[in-house]
Input
Amino acid sequence: MTEKFIRGIARARWAVLFGWLAITVASVLFLPNLADIVRQTEQKFVPADSESVVAKRLLEEINPEATTKSSAILVYSRDGGLTDQDRAWLKAKAAELEGLSGKDGFQSVQSAYETPELASKFRSKDGTTEMLIVGFSGADNDALTQDAVGELDGRIKDAPAGSKVELTGSAPIGKDFQQSSENGLKKTELLTVALVLVILLIVFRSPVAPFVPLITIGLSLVITTGLVAAATHWGMPVSSFTQSFLIAVMFGAGTDYCILLIQRFREELSRDGDKVEALVRTIRTVGKTVAFSASTVFVAFFLIGFAQFGLYQSAAGVAIGVAVTLIAGLTLTPALLMIFGKAAFWPTRIAAGQGHGESKLWAGMAAFSARRPVAIILVTVIVLAPVTLLFQNKRSFDDLAEIDPKLGSVQGFRQVERTFGSGEVFPLSIAIASPDSMRDPAALAAMETASANVAKLSGVKEVRSAVRPLGAQLADLTVSGQLTKTSEAIQQLKDGVDQVAGGLKEAEASVSGGRGDVDKLTSGLRTMAAKTKDAQRGLNQIRGGLQQASQGAKRLEDGLARSAAVSASMSADLSALLKAHPELKDDAAMQRLLGKQQGVSGGLNELKDGANRLSSSFAQLTPGVSQAASGLGQLAAGQTEAAEGAAKLSGGLKELTGGLQSGAKGLGDVSAGLTQVKAAQQAIGDSQIPGWNLPQSALDSPELRQALDYYISKDGKTAKFDVVLAVNPYSPEAQDTVGQVRDALAHSFSGTALKDAKLYISGTSAQITELKAISKSDFMRTGAFVLIGIFIVLMLMLRSIVAPLYLLLSLGFNYLVTMGIVEFIFVRLLGKEGLSWSASFFIFLILVALGVDYSIFLMARFKEEYRPGGIRDAMAKAMSTTGGVIVSAAIIMGGTFAALMMSGVNTLLQIGAGIVVGLILYAFVFMGLVVPALANLFGASNFMSGLSRKKDKAPKLKEVGDV
Output
């Protein structure tokens, strides 16, 4: 069946070539563009049910019309401080951008000019920097958002001379990262093709032969990118790494497979010169090796598709590339060999019997590993095991470290970090979901308590919420603020009471003076009664005195009426005080004050009655005096009555004086009590008692309603907290702060109106915390899948359990040693905070998937050559013939991944370095010494019982490595 298939390809070689060309053209014309899809793909790949994603969804429900999904921060700075010209430009630019709201992806603008009350949030304290925040309607990776960032960048080119304007924030950083990845991809493509071409020229010593693998892999790559792009419609994730890995793996592994086929074809062609028969023998021998090698790589990347983390899954597209490359290698490569024939190896002439010598170096290593297998294993473990300890799995989640620090988004971020603090760029946004409405005083009081507790954390700079819209406590809603206002009212009441008391004292002095006049009147009447001769003159004096007394009584009555009114007003004021402060009801001083006030009120009422009687007496006295004037007979009686009335008047005035003295003393006690109340309230305000007092009047105020509408949904069941960190949002300290913020909020809400509320935290620091946990758990899970899958392939191929086990153990040990070296270089020597958080996973995947190819090259030949009792000879033959293949494959694969180091993306740099170190280490140390030593130790146990006796039925994989 295989022979018939190969002969068919040989006959239809042109049809095969044109068929691949037609498929390639069709994929370009009709399949999606992978680069465009990657450009619009979220690079974090956080699961849809993760906390940060749920938080974002809830936050969008608070105010859907005003919520922005991404933003850019315009950072304007000038050394020495901003000038009036700078601020005029900023104000005009803010107005210009505001005019774009609702158009072309722009949604909102925030600045010191649109919201003057927030000016301190946009202007640095040193006066050198000011920010404008532009919100976009789409996510960072949306094409519309990226176009809006480009337009915004074009609109800031007219800044005044001497100033510096940069764009930072989620959208500009994402755009720069994507642009860096695309530029790095172009570099990788060119360098990879150049490196592969140079290596192929060296290997084949022909300018024609290299085009066979280049055409095969080039067409395969174009078709694969279209297929991977189409697979995204069925849920396959892609990332910027997908394209880089496709290029590196397809050019690396594909070139290795093509070298095997081409070199073996040249071997077979040298036998009889018949290219069809040479092709049949080539596919029959090395075709299976190529198929098994590609299958391990395919299985490894295919199983990545079962990862839960989207970024890891994005590497699954390489499985499609490996499958296409394998198909092309078994169809297109043979067709090209048929088309070129012997011309493929020009200028070298293919002579009969021309072969390839065995590697003396690898033959020597085979002999050494056969003589000293235990020593080799022990020395390798002793020397390399300490290197594994250098791998501490320090990981960095800093997106800014991925791109060139000279880019504008990074420069802008650093400027904000210096002048405002980096937390201003990427704050934490916390969604609070409650089953009940939070638009009530009890819930808002709980929010204030939570805001205060979170603000106390060392890693937190500021907390903004419905009760702290500007990041600071609202004084009007604090107990101390409200007590201050109450104290001011009490002071006013005290001043009024003091004035009343002063009036009563003056009245008492006036009444005392009137009493002396009445005493004189009594003496006069008595004298008049004794001296009738002076009756007329005395009567006239009495009439004048009575008239004065009548006027005084009238004034007294008016004064008492006013005093009674003041006393009644004071009673109402005290009642209002008790209503406003019910806690004073049981206060002893207040009880005494109330009693004295009631006594004053009663005394004033009695005085008022006495004044009324006095007025009546004067009314009765006046006619009597008139009658006395008309007759001396009635004068004595009138004088007697006048004397008696004057005596009564003296007694009444005495009582009035006592009442006035008591009233003045009572009001003095009231004043002293009010002073004590004010002092007590001042002490309460100074002590900052816990709690929150939100009067209905404050809840209905326009200012607080605006804050509520911004931070709480209309139904009141979703609220928002913005937490500005005091540390770099990418730092480990920020990740620790996320947990502290969560604990502080949960503790603050317990036992309050928000005890049943749920917390969801989003933001860069929160997302990093999730990535750390998700990527770690998925690494372990997916890594196990890959190892199991490769183990099964090796077991089926070698029909052994022992050999696959120690091969995988060698790969695992090689990975740990490689990671120790890579972490030492980048962290210890270059001073990085850690390796990029995804580098360790992809280095593991690629080292295992591609390193096992070399194991297959060696072990397939070893299995072919093995005969009972001939372990040493079989391994020596396998190593001497496959050593050149392994070295060539390692150089080619290392070269393609070394091209990643020039991409300009930090993660790809580290991955490329890790693959180069790992492949070289595995090819020379493990494949050259450790694996042969293990094979010699296990001897016949390398293979299952029975296989070693089937000499004649061994697979025809002879001379697979004669390169």
